[in-house]
Amino acid sequence: MDNAQEEAVTSCRICAGMCSLRLARDASGRIVSARGDKSNPLTRGYACIKGLQLPAAHASPDRLLHPLKRLPDGRFVRVPLDEALDEIAQRLQNLVAAHGPDSVAGFRGTMNYSNQTANTMLPAWLSALGSNSFYSTMTIDQSAKWVTFERLGGWAAGRDPFLAADVLMFIGTNPLVSLSTFNFPSQHPVRQMRDAIERGTRFIVIDPRRSETARHASVFLQPWPGEDAALLAGLLRIILDEGWHDTEFCAQHVHGLDDLRRALMPFDVPAVALRCGVSSESLFEAAAVFARPENGRRKRGSAASGTGANMGPHSNLVEHLVECLNVVCGRYARAGDPVANPGVLGPAYPRHAQVIAPQRSWEKGAKSRVGGWGMLFGQKMSGALSDEIETPGPGQVRALFVDGGNPASAMPGHERFVAALQSVDLLVTIDPFMTATARLSHFIIPPTMMFEHADLGTRDYESFVLHVPYSQYARKVAEPPAGAEVVDDWFVFWSLAKRMGKPIVFDGVALDMERAPTQEELLAILARNASVPFEQIQAHHLGKIFDVAGATVQPGDAASAARFQVVPQDVVQELGTMAREPAVRTQAATEGFTHLLAVRRVRDVQNTMYRQLDAIRKRVPNNPAWLHPDDLSALGVATGDSIAIASAHGRIEAIAEADDSMRPGVVSISHGWGGLPGDVQDGKDPHAGGVNVNRLTTTRTGLQTINAMPQLTALPVRLTPIQNHKQPS
Question: Domains in the chain, ordered, with CATH?
Fold first, then answer.
């Protein structure tokens, strides 16, 4: 075989980076290894450990290759695909007839988001059934971004382009590890950071840990977890008091600036510095670096947040204030600016320099029957899903379909949610591995994995995750293992709709319900209005920065009355409430807690995926509790010792590990580990497979208004050593 036959090129779809991979194949065509593609114009040879282990995931002996049905005694038996789908369809027919279509729910996980045909087919199937019960990881992750867009408004031309940035601010996000910060490229992030610094871009990082990203910062603030909203309010007040805001932009596009000034009055520099545990000087410096004009010129560049800011107290307010920084400083593309990424997969359309008016869509349309929560972008709130399953009555969720996710591990209020899953009449999981959710399921349908089907990048988010007009057609480069009965995720939903006599409209196109479409036909539908013809996109499986027609931002409509609503009444009320509340750290100490727990990502694992693979398990065998060495000393424990972590809602045991990047008084632990309640590895032996940090959280109290977001970070916890319990050598 020559090299062209021995090597295949495709893209990783684990995260938004979509890095190009070169795959080595043996004589039988089996993928045996992966490396980054140095010839790719965007990723330039970069690939993280997760993508490099995809061959091992495809070939894993733990991979499920046949549909399984759980028997009443808990055992799983193999069943033919058609038999499984026939029984599932019949049970669905009965449930819908007896309890209505909303009794059938779908849950979209990470790998559904990155699988474009499945991503579109799942909500299309629910719509065909007439069900509004659509849930996803988004509404327990960063749905504050959706709330902010709907409450503050948006800018039709987008934020200042990355390559034009004088300064970038990151709040509770670590793009060098998470690869998911919208104002910073995900592709080859270390080189992107180095290149930006050489261009003169300055970085401001706000994080309770001196993260990998913070090491490159011009200004680093290390506040207590949970104080992001107060800190941002303080920055905004400095900017407005000093007159560093963009007065012309605000006069033309902002409503309520004077009301915002008044609402920010309690957040003066000394009070904010004391509350957040940062110096007044560093707070002022951060505001100056971000906003103070230089040489009579306004700065370019934006502020953006991540999970750390979107999972704590007042998370909707935090995100609102992040975007208010961009608004008052006018950090948006203006008329005449070049459009950095006019788009490849999406249709060509003009970008206008004008405000998209806030819609407050959650106040309209369907409401949940428990709690009265509205919907955001067609989704119900996952923080209320336990209530929707547990509460009897019309519309009670009785069937749940999980595609590409593992909510039994990922959902807050772990034990309660697992009990809710165990109570549903029908739980179907589409997953290649026996996850915690799969173990509870009545049926498991194993799908093809990413090398075994073609795919595209995201059309709807391409301008957010790609800063140039790039696309790579990910060809099918491998066959499923011999004898496997696996199907593309979307096929499950299409075939159930066929059996139930429910026609599917896929991205606005009515599908033939007699003949199953091919993957390529569905991708062609998604790209039918693309700026670049689908056939040209297909031809560039190596990846290409396309020479699309250049575009510039067009002037806004002079007749438009849309304005950013920087301080609607509910934001005024929450700012007032927060100003009257004690600091998070103070309140925690009053209640007898010793530390605050902060969320954390690790480079080697994406949520709950693939941590069972040998190479990953050797690098990160569990999820330790990272603490500053001074905290370990005060507790009388050393790295490798076991400690108990207790919140107001639960208790776990974890392995202590020293980390001098942590702020003393803060403990961080990553999510996505552990098993089901009662498993040996979940809270009883933290050395084997880690522990589920969601046992410390709850969905019964403390949910944010609008999006039912639970508090997952800045949790007050109590740490105590566990005697004579060390990690095995």
Answer: 3-58 (3.30.200.210), 68-140+376-447+487-517 (3.40.50.740), 144-335 (3.40.228.10), 582-726 (2.40.40.20)
